[in-house]
């Protein structure tokens, strides 16, 4: 089997976009959420083949280019990360995806206009992206993300070893528990990544039983997806700084051989959307105001609440995300039947220990 791929990154978050070779897999579903679940249940070997060694590494994600289910969409998207339960939405992935499919010619750039609009059918719903283009290159992508809303504001939880924490919980495509770094005594810099992951996973595990959410995209799941730790920006032109701790397996503990989590390399589009929704709910940010979010490696996304909406009984907002992406490679991946390692492998010196494939 051969897969045509474009490798790209958005503010350091690596994505592998599969633009061809999936046609014979019989991927079915009435919605993109159905297709996501079908791939999870029938073709999860794509995840291990694309993201594990020898082709992948722990931080990389994959984006599958698929026919849309919504007739108003231009293209469909299923996102795959290291977890066997795939995310329904990711800001960094969709920025990479849109820039890559335009520059690779999967969707044509409208050279008659400075901005090309792409409607993407995702498991979380339709996402509209506007790409600023010049001479066949995408300079910037703005995305109108899914409606985002806060469910818990200034809520107290207890975490063993950390005591009582005041947190927010909000949805921006996934559910995030949002906590300030000053409560944890942490500085959000790359050298502290392992400690940030350890504490973030401890908080997420402790929140189970203390905080419940109604996840519309994951029926039966009532726990937060990830933890966002936020702080003051390092650059005065920006408004915040964050580290999003992403668990690699839902519900798994932290292992001594390596934390069962990674820090998002980019400023995290869905996490920033969730934080912006919480800030609007608190009256700390107004509709139309920009919020520049730094990542742990000093890259920046801009988020802006563009309008208010009601979502699942909550007052929420529709956020706009603005960022960049860059293609770093185009290649053909071979998955050969005579290759005993064709579906990937993991070794504990680089991968978190005791995690199932």
TrEMBL record:
Q: Which Gene3D superfamilies does this UniProt record tie to the protein?
A: Diaminopimelate Epimerase, Chain A, domain 1
Q: Which sites are catalytic? A: 90 (proton acceptor), 268 (proton donor)
Give the signal sequence positions: none
In the record, the note on similarity to other proteins reads: Belongs to the proline racemase family.
Name it. Answer: Proline racemase
- Its source organism is Neokomagataea tanensis
């Amino acid at each position: 089997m051969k897969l045509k791929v474009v490798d790209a990154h958005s503010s350091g978050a690596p994505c592998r976009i599969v633009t061809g070779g999936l046609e014979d897999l019989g991927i079915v579903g009435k919605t993109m959420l159905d297709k996501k679940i079908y791939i999870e249940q029938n073709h999860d070997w794509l995840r291990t083949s694309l993201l594990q060694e020898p082709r992948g590494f722990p931080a990389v994600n994959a984006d599958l280019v698929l026919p849309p289910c919504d007739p108003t969409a231009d293209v469909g998207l299923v996102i795959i990360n290291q977890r066997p339960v795939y995310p329904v939405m990711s800001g960094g992935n969709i920025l990479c995806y849109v820039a890559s499919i335009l520059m690779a010619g999967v969707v044509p750039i409208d050279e008659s206009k400075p901005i090309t609009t792409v409607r993407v059918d995702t498991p979380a719903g339709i996402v509209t992206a506007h790409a600023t283009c010049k001479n066949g290159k995408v300079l910037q992508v703005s995305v109108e993300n899914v409606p985002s809303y806060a469910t818990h504001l200034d809520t107290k939880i207890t975490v063993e070893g950390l005591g009582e924490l005041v947190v927010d919980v909000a949805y921006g495509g996934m559910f995030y528990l949002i906590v300030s770094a000053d409560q944890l005594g942490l500085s959000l810099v790359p050298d502290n990544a392992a400690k940030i992951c350890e504490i973030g996973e401890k908080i997420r595990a402790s929140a189970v039983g203390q905080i419940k959410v109604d996840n519309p995209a994951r029926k039966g799941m009532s726990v937060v997806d990830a933890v966002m730790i936020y702080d003051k920006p390092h650059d005065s032109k920006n408004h915040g700084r964050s580290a999003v701790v992403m668990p690699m397996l839902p519900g798994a503990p932290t292992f001594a051989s390596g934390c069962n989590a990674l820090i998002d390399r980019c400023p995290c589009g869905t996490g920033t959307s969730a934080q912006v929704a919480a800030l609007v709910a608190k009256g700390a940010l107004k509709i139309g105001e920009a919020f520049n979010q730094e990542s742990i490696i000093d890259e920046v996304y801009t988020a802006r609440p563009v309008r208010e909406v009601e979502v699942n009984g909550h007052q929420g907002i529709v956020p706009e995300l603005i960022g960049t992406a860059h293609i770093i490679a185009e290649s053909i991946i071979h998955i050969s039947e005579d290759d005993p390692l064709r579906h990937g492998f993991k070794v504990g010196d680089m991968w978190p220990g005791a995690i199932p494939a």
